[in-house]
From TrEMBL:
<dbReference type="GO" id="GO:0016787">
    <property type="term" value="F:hydrolase activity"/>
</dbReference>
<dbReference type="GO" id="GO:0046872">
    <property type="term" value="F:metal ion binding"/>
</dbReference>
<comment type="similarity">
    <text>Belongs to the FAH family.</text>
</comment>
<dbReference type="Pfam" id="PF01557">
    <property type="entry name" value="FAA_hydrolase"/>
</dbReference>
<dbReference type="InterPro" id="IPR036663">
    <property type="entry name" value="Fumarylacetoacetase_C_sf"/>
</dbReference>
<feature type="domain" description="Fumarylacetoacetase-like C-terminal">
    <location>
        <begin position="205"/>
        <end position="345"/>
    </location>
</feature>
<dbReference type="InterPro" id="IPR051121">
    <property type="entry name" value="FAH"/>
</dbReference>
<dbReference type="InterPro" id="IPR011234">
    <property type="entry name" value="Fumarylacetoacetase-like_C"/>
</dbReference>
<keyword id="KW-0479">Metal-binding</keyword>
<keyword id="KW-0378">Hydrolase</keyword>
<dbReference type="GO" id="GO:0044281">
    <property type="term" value="P:small molecule metabolic process"/>
</dbReference>
<protein>
    <submittedName>
        <fullName>Fumarylacetoacetate hydrolase family protein</fullName>
    </submittedName>
</protein>
Length: 374
């Protein structure tokens, strides 16, 4: 019996079409789940990026029933390969407030609790009530500047331009069941459960999946210029378990209505739960895609983290100390239509090294006669 899949798939998986990747003894394979079967389409499309570009989601070799799992010796990978990995931040009012707290606390978790309530009372209602970039938002900005309450994070929360950044290099993301990395020198950090849109080279959204955009609150809180160091580290970006492709039964309206549940379970018996409700996002997901594409092209497609409502403030070790990860935490992100993405926390220093970059990937496909199928 191979690796089971049903535990990480949504309950209605039999009604949907899913695409992803699996590591086999000879290298990565592209697999499609449909009509209760696992299909290996690698001989037709050796990359997920290419399969999406050519809409190659049928045919292939039958690996067996979904209920029977992957073949022995196979394991799930992140469901993306050549796509660029982009992310939007501060797309929810709560996350905007928490970023301002990080900034004012200079990345000090102990100082955050003393700042939080005042900011929520002063800023929270205002940024929840306005449409980003609107005249009302600009009036609120002027009022907050006059009060000395303005922040670069509020600029991207209610201003005309969304925050869009590059999260992780091509081929560096990890999948369901893998270790996820947090910098070893971070003392204040948390998971970020998010919906991830999957777009082709023309910017059309073709499906969605789940992601964990790990956040280092101490690093980014000290300076926004540390964003790249906070976000882009070995194994710091998890995506999966599969991309659910849009069809007549699942589309962008389901993304807009999605609820993403988070559970963190520590080896110290600590447990934390949270929910990310996409209905509370400040900018529509398609607007985030538009802004990502406005001055840039992505010939192999891209994926886009939509941001999170969840910002944990639950104390873990001591009153006022807030939450931070510990090695061994199991982080599970779940959504009814997308399934479950589960990863165990380690440090980026101790995580398995990223070894299959673009060169190694192309060499592997060339050895298997699959380069022309990309």
């Amino acid at each position: 019996m191979g690796l089971g899949l049903t535990a990480c798939l949504p309950r209605d998986y039999a009604d949907g079409v899913f695409i992803g990747r699996a590591e086999a003894p000879d290298g990565p394979h592209v697999i499609v789940l449909r009509n209760g079967r696992i299909l290996d389409i690698t001989q037709m499309a050796s990359s997920v990026s290419g399969a999406i570009a050519r809409r190659t989601f049928a045919g292939g070799g039958d690996l067996g029933a979904i209920e029977d799992g992957l073949p022995e010796g196979w394991s799930l990978l992140s469901p993306i390969d050549l796509q660029c990995v982009k992310a939007c931040g501060v797309t929810f009012a709560v996350s905007a407030i928490e970023r301002v707290i990080e900034e004012r606390a200079r990345g000090d978790a102990a100082a955050a609790a003393n700042i939080r309530q005042g900011l929520e009372d002063t800023v929270g209602a205002g940024i929840r009530a306005v449409v980003p970039g609107s005249e009302e938002a600009m009036a609120l900005k002027a009022a907050l500047i006059a009060q000395g309450m303005w922040s670069q994070y509020l600029e991207v929360a209610i201003g005309p331009d969304a925050e869009v950044f590059s999260k992780s290099p091509v081929l560096s993301t990890v999948g369901h069941g893998a270790l996820i990395g947090v910098r070893s020198d971070s003392s204040w950090n948390n998971p970020e459960p998010e919906v991830v849109l999957v777009c082709d080279g023309a910017g059309e959204v073709v499906g969605a999946t789940l992601g964990n955009d790990v956040n280092l609150r101490d690093f980014e809180g000290r300076s926004a210029l540390l964003l790249s160091k906070a976000k882009d580290n070995t194994a710091s970006c998890a995506i999966g378990p599969f991309i659910r492709l849009f069809d007549e039964g699942f589309g962008i309206e389901d993304v807009r209505a999605a609820e993403v549940e988070l559970v963190v379970e520590g080896t110290d018996n600590f447990r934390m739960e949270g929910t990310n409700r996409m209905t509370e996002i400040s900018r529509d997901p398609l607007e985030l895609v538009r802004q990502t594409m406005s001055e840039h092209s992505y010939p192999d497609g891209f994926v886009l983290f939509c941001g999170t409502l969840f910002a944990p403030v639950q104390d873990r070790d001591e009153p006022g100390g807030g939450f931070t990860h510990k090695v061994g935490d199991v982080v599970t992100i779940r959504s009814d239509r997308l399934g479950a993405l589960s990863n165990t926390v380690t440090t980026s220093r101790d995580a398995p090294k990223w070894t299959m970059g673009i060169g190694a990937y192309i060499r592997n496909l060339a050895a298997r006669g699959l380069v022309e199928k990309i």
